[in-house]
Write a structure and sequence with these properties.
This protein has 428 residues and is mainly α. It contains 18 helices and 6 strands. Bound molecules: carboxymethyl coenzyme *A (CMC).
């Protein structure tokens, strides 16, 4: 019989403690350290939680050494090639893919109907000045949603938490479009439910006034189906990613018993940082700063200079020690779209590819196993879709929403205790 325990020996006292190993369906086992302190009087110390599993989950699985990502057990490449983003939302929140086209369309339509906002919520946007970053507007507006939907999620009611998630996924596109339009002083464009979920989002961004984002001289909003497909895939590739910083934030905040929308609002703030989702905006700024392929070696040298804080944005990952499968899919999408006529910014594309080429051959990057991550190429596609740079991280928010919603539901249903880590005290 397999011995499913591990022994911890205190070398100063000779005491031995057995701890159970927790089995999992894939990936490394975990030591059950829940009673470590109670039994031994010592804490585990793991800043940044590099070796700590904070929960059990069935939603996604990452094999960072082999570049594998599964949503509900299905490889993302299969999902993205066969299913729309809204199908993937359904998979994540209810563990079921639509059985056929009718079910798929019904779910998309349901989301479209839920995409409208209470008029009172619009005042939140009005309170922010022109030029405010849409992420700030967004986290406030999502927090405020809890005041419009006061009911907490009743976990005994499957429909109740499904509705919580559907509302959130539906309204986030409208909230992103409104927060952007507010940041540049444009009038708000209400959802058009005759358009699919993703197309409607592009419509709310682009409609009126003429010229700026894709309205032609006849006043028609120009949206190429290829653009809708591309954005759909980008959302899908961001939909869920285990216990990253924002998801962990969502779970931690939810563990205190707050309204799920308040927990998701906190997750939006966590995502905003440049080490996390905010990296996609920084990548594009960095490509602009590098400005020319001939400058790539100079910037690679800066990365390696210990006295220079410069980091290559869109590179490196805590879990992936090989090529991020999302980055691979996004890079392929970029090349595919370019061939099909959605032209990428050639300068940015060339600089990014040169950076990758030089970095992947460089000892510094090889030693540290640093590869392009999901944020490295996404901004180049988003720019080709006429999405403003300040909306790159909000696009990540839309994509990640089904992941956060399913994680919050899973956390509440698991009956997990409040998150309350310890500290190693070094003060007076
Ligand atoms: N450029 C240069 N060096 C890097 C980079 C980078 N992008 N990332 C890591 N390193 C180096 C780092 O300096 C350290 O070197 P040394 O051992 O000599 O001190 C080593 O690699 C390990 O780095 P770390 O900071 O300990 O790694 P981490 O797991 O704590 O951080 C990360 C992961 C994603 C924050 C980091 O790789 C990074 O800052 N990348 C750039 C920002 C970025 O692209 N973020 C998006 C992440 S993917 C999307 C998402 O999930 O949000």
């Amino acid at each position: 019989m397999e011995n499913n325990t591990i022994t911890l020996i205190n070398n100063s006292t000779g005491e031995k403690f057995n701890f159970d190993l927790i089995n999992c369906t894939r990936g490394p086992k975990a030591i059950d350290f829940g009673k470590l302190f109670e039994r031994t009087g010592i804490f585990s110390y793991d800043p940044g939680y590099a070796s700590t599993a904070g929960c059990k989950s069935t939603i996604s699985y990452i094999d960072g050494n082999n570049g594998i990502l599964l949503y509900r057990g299905i490889p993302i490449q299969d999902l993205v090639s066969k299913y729309k983003f809204t199908d993937i939302c359904q998979l994540l929140i209810s563990d079921k893919l639509p059985k056929n086209d009718i079910e798929s369309k019904e779910f998309d339509l349901e989301l479209r109907q839920l995409g409208f906002l209470h008029e009172g919520l619009i005042n939140i946007f009005k309170a922010f000045p022109d030029g405010a970053h849409p992420m700030a507007n967004l986290s406030s507006a999502v927090g405020a949603l809890s005041t419009f939907y006061k009911d907490y999620v009743d976990i005994s009611d499957d429909n109740g938490y499904q509705m919580m998630a559907k509302r959130m996924i539906a309204k986030i596109t409208t909230l992103v479009a409104f927060s952007y339009r507010n940041s540049i002083g444009y009038p708000y464009i209400y959802p058009d439910i005759s358009r699919s979920y993703v197309e409607n989002f592009l419509y709310m961004l682009r409609a009126f006034p003429y010229g700026k984002l894709g309205v032609n001289i006849d006043g028609e909003v120009e949206i190429d189906p290829l653009e809708v497909e591309a954005l759909d895939k980008i959302f899908s590739l961001h939909a869920e990613h285990g216990q990253n910083a924002s998801t962990t934030t969502v779970r931690n905040v939810a563990s205190t018993g707050v309204h799920p929308y308040a927990a998701i609002s906190a997750g939006i703030n966590a995502l905003w940082g440049p080490s996390h989702g905010g990296a996609n905006e920084k990548v594009l700024n960095q490509l602009a700063e590098i400005d020319d392929v001939s400058n790539v070696p100079k910037f690679i040298d800066r990365v390696k200079d210990k006295n220079d804080p410069f980091r290559l944005m869109g590179f490196g990952h805590r879990v992936y020690k090989s090529y991020d499968p999302r980055a691979k899919a996004i890079k392929n999408l970029k090349d595919e779209l370019d061939k099909k006529g959605i032209k990428m910014n050639a300068k940015f594309s060339d600089i990014a590819e040169k950076l990758e080429e030089v970095a992947l051959k460089d000892e510094y990057f090889i030693e540290r196993k640093l590869y392009p991550n999901v944020d490295f190429y996404s901004g180049i596609i988003l720019t080709a879709l006429k999405i403003p740079v300040s909306l790159f991280t909000p696009i990540f928010v839309i994509g990640r929403m089904p992941g956060w919603c399913s994680q919050v539901i899973e956390h509440i249903k698991s009956g997990a205790r409040i998150t309350r880590p310890r500290q190693v005290y070094e003060g007076k």
